[in-house]
C-alpha cells in the first residue's frame, strides 16, 4: 500500500512523500565497511586498516595465494565456460569442501550428510537459518557469543529468530569467560541453537581449549542443544587444518551429534570476493540427510537459483589433488605464521615503549584478529589523522590507563 510520510530535506525542511517504501528506515552503514571507506579517504601515508578481516602481505597489499594462482591458471588454460552450476553447486567442490571440514573418517559416512554450496560463509549461515526455520516450530532461541562477528545477529534476526547474547570474553582478565559459557549452556532451554566459531574466534582470537570443547560437547549432548559451527578460518588459525577442525570433528565424529557447519573459503583461500562457501549438515540418518539436502536445494533455488561458479572451480582444483593441497597447506602456514609474528611484534613493541598494562593476552590469541582491549576513547584517538602527535601526549596515556 502507498503510504504518505514526512521526509526531511538536507536543508532541514520537511516535505510530504508518497511511496510503497515510506516505511523503510534509514539504516547507518555497516560499521566495518564504513571504517574501510573512512580509511580509503584518509590521505595519511602511514594509515593502516585494522578493521577489515582481510589478510595483507608484508607490503600491506592483498595476497593471491600461490595455490589459488596456480589453480586459476590451470582453469584458464583448460578454457572456462560460463554455464550455470547445479542448484546445489559444483559437485566436486561440495564433496571436497565437506571432506576438508569433516576429515575423511567422518566423510566416509557421507550418506548422512547434506551438502550445499553457498554464497560464502554469510550465505551458509543464512541458508542454515532458513533450514532451521523450515524445520523447527516454534522457532528456537539462538545464542550468540558476545563479542562476535556482527553479522551473526543481523542474519538470524532478519530471519525472525530471537537472538540472545552470552558473555564469551572476560574483558578484565582478557580470556574466555568460561564460567559464563558453562552457565549459559546449563541454563538454555533444550532445543536452543548455539552459534560457535569453530576456531579463531572473531574478534577476540580466543578459543576454548580441547578439554573445554569436550566439556561443551558433553553439556550440549546432555541438554539437547544444537550447534551451528561458523567455520570461516579453518587452517588459518594454527596453520593446520585438522587442528582447527578439532571441535567440528569431536562433536560430529566422537559425540555423534547432529550439527550444521558453515564453511567459508574467503579467508583461508583469500577468495573473499568470489563468495565460495558451503553448508554441511551432519545428520542422524541417510533418509533425513536426503530430505534435508533436497530442502536446502529448494531454499537455494528461491534465494539465488545457482551459486557462483568461478571461485568454486578454483577451490575445487586446490582441494582436488595432493600436490595442490600441499601448496595450499604451505600458504596457510605462511598466513597464520605471519599473523602470529605480527601479533608478537606488536606485543614486544608495546612492552618496549612502556605501554601501561599487561599484553600477554596478545601472544595467547590466534587467527586473523588481535584483540588489544583498548578503550573506545583510545581507539578514537588512534583513528584520527593527528593521532601520531597524540602518541606523545600525556592526555593519551591518561585515557589509555
Ligand atoms: C566469524 C566469521 N564468520 C563468517 C564470516 C563470513 O565471511 P564470508 O561471508 O566472506 O565468507 C566472517 C567474515 O569476516 C567471519 O569473521
TrEMBL record:
Residues 47-383 form the Aminotransferase class I/classII large domain. It is an enzyme of class 2 (transferase). It holds the Pfam family Aminotran_1_2. This is Aspartate aminotransferase. Its cofactor is pyridoxal 5'-phosphate. Its EC number is 2.6.1.1. Keywords: Aminotransferase, Pyridoxal phosphate, Transferase. InterPro entries: Aminotransferase_I/II_large (IPR004839), Asp_trans (IPR000796), NHTrfase_class1_PyrdxlP-BS (IPR004838), PyrdxlP-dep_Trfase (IPR015424), PyrdxlP-dep_Trfase_major (IPR015421), PyrdxlP-dep_Trfase_small (IPR015422). Belongs to the class-I pyridoxal-phosphate-dependent aminotransferase family. It comes from Aureobasidium pullulans (Black yeast).
